[in-house]
Amino acid sequence: MDDLLPEYRAPLKDMKFLMNEMSAPTSSSSNIVNNEDLIFVLEQGALFSEKELVPINALADKEGCIFQQGQVTLPNTMNKAFRSYAQGGWMGLSMPEKWGGQALPEKLAVFIAEILTSANHSFSMMPALTMSACRAIISHGSEDLKNTYLEKMISGQWTGTMCMTESHCGSDLGLIRSTAERVSTDIFKIKGNKIFISSGQHDASDNIIHLVLARLKDAPKGIKGLSLFLVPAKLQDKENNWSKQNAVECIGIEEKMGLHGNPTCSMSFDGAEGYLIGEENKGINTMFTMMNEMRLGTSMQGVGLSERSYQKSISYATNRTQMRSLSGVKAPNKSADPIIVHPDVRRMLLTQKVFAEGGRALGQFCANLLDESHKENPDKDQVRLLDFLTPIAKGFCTEVGLESASHAIQIYGGHGFITESGVEQLYRDGRISTLYEGTTGIQALDLLGRKVLGSQGKSLLAFTKIIHKLCLSQENNESLSSYVASLSAFSKEWPELTMKIGSKAMKDPDEVGAASFDFLMYSGYVTLAYFWLKMAATAQEILNGQRDSISGKIDRGFLEAKVMNAKFYFDRILPRALSHKAIMLAGKDNLMGLNEKQFTNA
Q1: CB atoms < 10 A from the CB of 291, how many?
Q2: What is the pTM of this model?
């Protein structure tokens, strides 16, 4: 196996194709950015990840984090890598220049996020959380909070967390018991315990800024009574040095299935000094500024997982020899053929590939919408479209990312089940992505209940109109005609299915919960079909000389593969949506028929 491919190489060719051929010119908040400049930054980010993060991924997983007397020590390699990343200015890539950021567009940042996850999932957690915390402060914090905290967070000198979950409540935030008491005009005392706090305590930054959901005295019950507070681990002392310990303590770290290089902490706030972000009792709205961007970031973790799983798998499949091809010997100079010649191995490889490239195209599209949402007067229709696509991106891309990791284990066979191969770590690390920032079930309820039915289908129709325009533009394209017909049919059927579920839900709300997961997966398969048709059409136009490539000469083999991959997607992946359609229409009775005692009968 000496000629295995590199452990990981950032998929720059595909990213450049999306950035140049599939994306509109970029206008950030402060300047117009040339794609050539963005690609240069992208290449440097890829270089850092390949050289600094890939080599320490397995090492940090093996070493893990150490908890001792309230302090958490990261693996030494992880600590050094984070400080190097921060010193290189990568933390503030898409942050405003006012506080030291580079104000580069999200369509670049989303690719860097994917690369970080593929290279080292544990590492990617700290910058992602910190920048999301910065977005919440930028959107809702007072000028004093912005001026005090943002520059140091954006530089990476300080890091950030989001503190929501408590031991008795997971996603049901209305059950939160943490309290806040006003002690002066601007200062509150925060009491309570939080669990599952990623990077809640560590030794790679000088201070950790916690964003904490808590309840003020006499606040309304449920989520309507929650407020969001900024609680630094360290406060300023009399000499204005940030060395005074706040009443914040890490009381333990979790022993986890994966992500061993990043600590998941239990945190105690024992009258800790904190400062209100946004309005009282509006904390859940404020937190969702952070949460929504984290969900998009998590979707790219799913894409990164598919990509890394594919790269590991293709490397192994081109070198591992097992049996002979059913259609005749392919490697006569060897005792067996490489397993890539076997159709079932190709089925798994291509499944990983179309999920990675299709999810990446969805991520790029959402990133452009996110750039629009950051403008002073954003286009409301574009923001609504982003809100609709976010739960699809998060829920679907993480589910299929996990499928891709499972395929990697299967392709490696018994070698995939042992630590040495590295693919079992992909599955262990990636498993959390379907859980945090809201489980797949919660994304599904958000999509069907709030985003689609809650808008009387308007958000869905906004996207199906985009699909319809693409199909119209390709209606005379004979080579893609079957794909156009298939996608067009799905785009018409999608709203009809929604109306059927909505009619049932008017009589029984449980019908929404019974249909929601399959509705999300159906939506994901149809959404990726749109991007695969668009990519195939774009590639074909360049191949046929019908349009010039913006980026100059593109490898012909790459473009031909795009068209062939679209064929695989439409022929073998999109039909999965039909089974989800049948299930979502099956109703709730097959789920709700048993009583609780019948579940426990032997």
Answers
A1: 17
A2: 0.95
